[in-house]
Design goal:
CATH class: Mainly Beta
Strand order of the largest sheet: 1-2-7-6-5-8
Number of domains: 1
Structural class: mainly beta
Largest sheet: 6 strands, antiparallel, barrel
Number of helices: 1
CATH architecture: Beta Barrel
Helix content: under 10%
Strand content: 25-35%
Distance between the termini: 11 Å
Length: about 150
């Protein structure tokens, strides 16, 4: 199991509106996320995380034809999520939208989970990934690959 600490980062506040349009198209193929809160928590991880083999990948979803005329692909990676770090872990998922600005930085990931009350704006959290992963010892920074 790999554990990665991250600090909550402010988002743009668009996830809940986007998810309202995306989830009806995603849920038929991936119903296990049906009970999540309709928003995401943005985390700045303490080291980069590259998800090459997600637990689920959608087909291209036509949720916003004006901005994404060819559709958008979404990846999901199952995690255990402590928010804040030290709290009882809950089932969560990394939500990886292929056209998202967050994909430009492998240290920033969006987490989907059940509603978490009173999580501070800059809370330190932890994700745990229970599957094969490799930590690459690059000289400038270590990266985790799943």
């Amino acid at each position: 199991m790999i554990e990665i600490t991250g600090q909550r980062q402010p988002g743009e506040g668009t996830a809940s509106g986007n998810l309202a349009r995306q989830l009806p198209l995603i849920l038929p193929g991936f119903p296990e996320i049906a009970s999540i809160h309709r928003g995401t928590i943005n985390l700045q991880l303490d080291r980069p995380l590259l998800v090459l083999t997600p637990d689920h990948r959608t087909r291209p979803i036509d949720w916003d034809p004006a901005n994404h005329p060819d559709g958008e692909i979404f990846d999901f990676l199952r995690i255990q999520f402590e928010a804040p770090r030290g709290a009882r872990p809950v089932d969560g998922w990394l939500y990886i939208a292929h056209n998202s600005q967050w994909r430009k930085d492998p240290r920033v990931h969006e987490v989907m989970a059940p509603m978490i009350e009173n999580l501070g704006a800059d809370a330190v959290c932890k994700i745990s990934i229970d599957r094969p992963a490799w930590e690459l010892p690059y000289q400038l920074w270590r990266a985790v690959v799943v």
